């Protein structure tokens, strides 16, 4: 009889915990509303060879804090689009956000090499790629693959890459 009483107590306790726990609801993949991304996704689907549209969509995914989707968009695009300097620059940012600093440095160096070889690169892209390549170089030298996992060391790498020396003539 005592064993049955214990069984009933345990069954009631487990049932109570189960009822109090609630259910898990689905969660959106993107924090941003999908309606803002739908036109960009449709544009890339309709024009897969449009490098500007691919760059915009990948940047929108990065802005929505979904670097995996940005990587997917770039990696699945045609080679001519994937190797465009503007797309490669966004790809490097997505790699960095995914914790792959060494690969991001390689991608940024490819952007700079393409810009030196005569690709149509505006001055903003060259300046941004140069700055990011310098920062990534410092991250790699310090042995940091994931900048978000090591914020203190990432700050040191950033300061090392961006410090300036000034001369004053007297």
Q: Please count the helical segments.
A: 9
* Largest sheet composition: none
In whole angstroms, the N-to-C terminal distance is 99 Å
- CATH architectural name: Alpha Horseshoe
Domain module tally: 1
Radius of gyration using CA atoms only: 24 Å
CA-based shape: elongated
The CATH homologous superfamily corresponds to Tetratricopeptide repeat domain
Structural class: mainly alpha
Provide the helix percentage.
over 70%
Give the percentage of residues in beta strands: under 5%
- Residue-averaged pLDDT: 87
Query: SSE order, as H and E?
Result: HHHHHHHHH
Total DSSP E strands = 0
CATH topology: Serine Threonine Protein Phosphatase 5, Tetratricopeptide repeat
Low-confidence stretches: none
CATH uppermost class: Mainly Alpha
Strand and helix layout:
Blueprint: H1 2-21, H2 34-46, H3 51-63, H4 67-75, H5 79-82, H6 85-97, H7 101-116, H8 123-141, H9 151-162
Task: Give short descriptive properties of this protein.
elongated; Serine Threonine Protein Phosphatase 5, Tetratricopeptide repeat; 9 helices; single chain; mainly alpha; 170 residues
């Amino acid at each position: 009889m005592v064993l049955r009483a214990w069984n009933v107590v345990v069954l009631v306790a487990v049932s109570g915990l189960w009822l109090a726990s609630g259910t898990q609801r689905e969660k959106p993949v993107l924090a941003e509303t999908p309606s803002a991304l739908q036109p960009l996704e449709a544009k890339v689907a309709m024009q897969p060879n449009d490098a500007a549209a691919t760059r915009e969509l990948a940047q929108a995914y990065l802005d929505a804090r979904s670097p995996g989707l940005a990587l997917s968009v770039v990696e699945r695009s045609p080679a001519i689009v994937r190797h465009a300097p503007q797309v490669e620059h966004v790809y490097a940012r997505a790699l960095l956000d995914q914790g792959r600093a060494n690969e991001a440095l390689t991608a940024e160096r490819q952007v700079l090499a393409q810009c030196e070889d005569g690709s149509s690169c505006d001055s903003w892209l060259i300046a941004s790629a140069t700055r990011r390549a310098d920062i990534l170089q410092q991250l790699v030298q310090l042995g940091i693959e994931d900048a978000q996992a090591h914020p203190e060391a990432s700050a040191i790498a950033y300061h090392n890459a961006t410090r300036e020396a000034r001369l004053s003539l007297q």
